[in-house]
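Handout, page 2. Input:
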Amino acid sequence: MDFKDFNFNPDLLEGLLAMGFRNATPIQQEAIPLIIAKKDLIACAQTGTGKTGAYLLPIMNMISETKDRHNNTLILAPTRELAQQIDLQVEALSYFTNISSLTVYGGGDGIAYEQQKRSMREGVDIIIATPGRLISHLSSGLLKLDQLQHLVLDEADRMLDMGFYDDIMRIVSFLPEKRQTVLFSATMPPKIRKLAGTLLKEPEQISIAISKPAAGINQQAYIVHDTQKVKLLTELMKNVDFPSILIFASTKEKVKNLGKVFRGLGFKAEAFHSDLGQKEREAILSEFKNKRVPVLIGTDVLSRGIDVEGISLVINFDVPHDPEDYIHRIGRTARAATTGTAITLVNDKDKRKFANIEKLIGKTIDRMPLPEHLGAAPVETASTGTPGTDRPERSDATKPKRKFWKKKPKVAGGTPNSQ
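Output:
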């Protein structure tokens, strides 16, 4: 289903097309019409299904057609990282609109807190928040949500697992009873059904299974210390014959820094981030598509929006926070019936996130040996298969594989991989 079929606001549609989005995923096809119809919704959608766009797009479309938009929508997320990622998507999708957003979470400095307070006083269209920090603003009277139109609970099962049930109910007490409520959850245990029964009114229900990475992707991982990452990538990129390489990092600042680092090392690389103007972004993507820039570095917004064939190597400089983002990232390669390689650099801090990725995709990703001159790598524990302090006995799954640059991409049979 083409996004044009939803009759979105022209400015919102222009942003979609500029980011390379064309066809809706199954969860988007089912959820968008229901949300536009202002139905309450329970959606059981695992990571990798396009769930964030499934609720953002229809809500942003409704906001664009609303005159009184003061604090229109609240999106609750379990973690700061997810809240930031949702905000990045709002920023990208609303590029041609005047829709505003604000993230509210703990751990920031005094300047960030003052910026939050100012935005709350002035009012924004979309507030993306973690429960704890939001409650402090509501309790102080600084934030008023009595005119709220839409409430979204993203990763509701995870929020309940983290003990946020009472916080959610307290937040809801500050909201108007007449509102649209949308709940997304990867699983649907009894506690989620109980929460839905309390918050939602005559909800519609959707259940979508997860998509898996394409079979043609050769997935590999290097267990590294942070200090080894740039040195390893430099060596890998000098020893491969891949015309198009995508590198994903976790933050905009890191993307900028990596761009400077690799250009300083003599690579023709460009950093793709939201601080660039639209014309600059379009020019960089054009250069990359035409193979005049072989290395492109970006955040997860790029992984969801770029539509370029012939990308043979994807590198995760950082392990993505959500397994969903891993699937989107490596899905940029092995398209149109080709094969490709996806490499992830895993430090000790990211071991749990990487284990969650392997659990999601249902396979153990091959570990590759570090070149000896880069020093010793963190050792993996036998129990978790992730970086740790105990040396395990090697199984077939953990034996070092041959170096990836000995293998070049080849064309495989089959049907084109679709997003």
